[in-house]
Design a protein that fits this description.
Helix content: 40-55%
Distance between the termini: 36 Å
Largest sheet: 5 strands, antiparallel
Oligomer: single chain
Mean pLDDT: 75
Strand content: 5-15%
Structural class: alpha+beta
């Protein structure tokens, strides 16, 4: 068919060249009438629109979108579906293609020019010459007339501010590919500091604190010894993250997912229980004396139960089992490694980020000598307190593979034990501020334990909402049915996406993911979020089994771990720049949804 149109175009050109007036001449539309090309900025997107005249069709493979100024950059948008016309994929009536402004402007400095190329034909028997149109746009961050040094400082600050708020792993991976070596390391250190303020690092605080207490014996740890123990713990944790990230990036393996299987979690929970009973004073956990003597020779600062080796092992295991939450910086670094193969830069970025995450742990070790109680009766109380925390961490671990009902029951029993530890039924007279605080906490703990037990009897599934079965607020999006969120394949997911006439949200989750539960309990259950999500099709994909199909889906969309939320527009086009990695609060999530059409 294309050959026929080419011949027709050639014959028509020859007739026009010799001044022959054909009968069909006046029926042909002018190029400006056959193809009306527009490009406008609407909100956070650059929208291009090609309106085709009557009986005009446009070849899909002729469409080309390029930034030609100030640099050459070919764009590869997700084109809308075309129709088959005798073996050729063509468009009729209208073609709308959207581009994400943030993505374009992150790759282009200053004002830019978009060029659109296309070619089409008329069913009347004429093919038009290729058409090229250009459109000029102003960069949304206007250039300043200040001196060069100030411009550079402002630009660096803008980059750091933008990337620190970015939820897209692809955008962070792109930043790794474009920025300077030292700027990247500094940026990832800041990422680590930000992650240290999230729940990712919280479970490690009692683990490290218990190590410091256990290695102090009957004495009070010095600031230097506490800092040394913390440094060993943080370095082993950071090294583990780096190795895991490199393996994941180079081989595409989700090592952390493998470490979440029931056997590993059960063994680690049992280890926490053993540590708890050791801190209660029932027995001592330590390496053989011959090992300890060798370790002592390596560093006279590392004494006590476990020393350097024990601290390093706990740091390694904590990194694999307890954290971190999957966050955009982690996913971005791993995606960069997988795309570029640059293991050196990606690995260093992960190490620096992990070290930044460990800064609060270093401060805890440094302050151990000042804030830890002096030797005496209080030391046994402190050890018992950390023993109770170890039991809580054991429940936290094992709950990932237990039913919600059994998990709530274990938490209920823990709060009963905690209230008894605080002296709920202690007949001694309460004295001092700490005594009153302990008594108040004991009463609150026993009431919360009762609430959890009532929740168990009622069939509740969340320790944060033990009375959910007695309220109407527990109804969450798309959960009133018995739909199975497991067993997804790429084909099944794509079929559900294509069946939607609304924008699509796909939430990737797993049972062992703490941030995923936060999304369900805090964000997706928010009334305002549920209201705006009525305008979307919501698909939840449970990756808990870590099957090959689960891995294939993550690889297809270049994702690492959970939680990850991806989006598709009304034309079923994947919006990669809109991906959210990690937890997001309700208000930012609502603002994010408002940018998706």
């Amino acid at each position: 068919m294309r050959k026929l149109f080419v011949v027709a175009m050639f014959m028509s050109s020859m007739l026009f060249a010799f001044g022959v007036n054909t009968p069909q001449q006046n029926t042909f539309l002018k190029p400006s009438e056959a193809f009306i090309v527009e490009a406008n900025i609407i909100g956070n997107k650059l929208q291009t629109k090609i309106t085709l005249g009557k009986d005009i069709h446009l070849y899909q493979n002729s469409l080309k979108y390029t930034i030609i100024k100030p640099t050459s950059l070919e764009l590869s948008p997700a084109l809308p579906s075309a129709i088959d016309d005798e073996g050729e994929m063509v468009y009729e009536h209208e073609v709308v293609v959207d581009f994400d402004l943030d993505t374009i402007e992150s790759k282009v400095k200053g004002d830019y020019t978009l060029q659109i190329e296309l070619m089409g034909c008329s069913t009347s028997g004429i093919c038009y010459q290729p058409i090229t149109q250009t459109f000029d746009f102003k960069h949304r961050s206007p250039t300043s007339n200040i001196i060069k040094e100030e411009t550079k400082e402002s630009s660096a600050f803008d980059k750091i501010s933008a990337l620190s708020q970015d939820t897209s792993t692809q955008n962070i991976a792109d930043a790794l590919a474009k920025e300077s070596f030292w700027f990247i390391l500094f940026l990832f250190f800041l990422f680590g500091l930000l992650l240290s303020l999230t729940p990712c690092i919280f479970p490690m605080i009692p683990i490290l604190s218990s190590i410091i207490v256990s290695q102090s014996g009957e004495g009070k740890p010095s600031a230097s010894k506490g800092f040394f123990i913390s440094l060993i713990y943080v370095l082993s944790m950071a090294t583990t993250y780096t190795v895991v990230g490199l393996i994941a990036g180079l081989m595409g393996a989700d090592i952390q997912a493998s470490m979440q299987n029931p056997w590993v979690l059960s063994i680690f929970a049992a280890l926490f229980v053993a540590l708890a009973f050791s801190l209660f004073g029932y027995f001592e956990l330590g390496l053989p004396s011959s090992w300890q003597s060798k370790i002592t020779k390596m560093s006279d600062k590392a004494q006590g139960k476990g020393g350097v080796a024990g601290t390093a092992i706990m740091g390694l295991l904590s990194a694999l089992i307890v954290g971190p939450c999957v966050a955009p910086p982690l996913g971005g670094a791993i995606l960069f490694i997988s795309q570029s193969g640059d293991a050196l830069l990606g690995g260093l970025a992960l190490f620096i980020m992990s070290f930044g995450m460990g800064m609060p742990l270093l401060l805890i070790g440094l302050g151990a000598g000042r804030f830890m109680p002096k030797p005496g009766g209080w030391m046994s109380k402190v050890s018992q307190f950390f023993g109770i925390i170890m039991l809580l961490l054991a429940i936290y671990m094992i709950a990932r593979i237990l039913s919600d009902t059994l998990s709530m029951l274990l938490y209920s029993l823990w709060f009963v034990g905690f209230s008894l530890y605080l002296g709920l039924f202690n007949s001694e007279k309460v004295s001092g501020f700490l005594g009153y605080v302990a008594k108040i906490l004991a009463v609150a703990s026993i009431f919360y334990a009762m609430a959890l037990f009532i929740g168990v009897l009622s069939g509740a599934t969340s320790i944060l909402k033990p009375f959910e079965k007695f309220t109407t607020s527990s109804i969450t999006i798309e959960k009133s049915d018995k739909k199975d969120y497991k067993g997804y394949t790429i084909e099944r997911l794509e079929k559900e996406i294509e069946a939607s006439h609304k924008p699509v949200i796909v939430d990737f989750t797993k049972k062992s993911c703490a941030a995923c539960k936060e999304l369900d309990l805090i964000t997706f259950s928010d009334a305002k979020v549920k209201d705006i999500m009525r305008n979307f099709t919501f698909i939840k994909v449970d990756l808990s089994d870590n099957t090959q199909d689960d891995k294939d889906i993550l690889n297809k969309y270049k994702l690492f771990g959970t939680p990850n939320i991806i989006f598709f527009d009304t034309q079923n086009r994947y919006l990669s720049s809109k991906t959210i990695t990690g937890f997001i609060a309700p208000e930012p999530f609502i603002r994010h949804l408002q940018t998706i059409k």
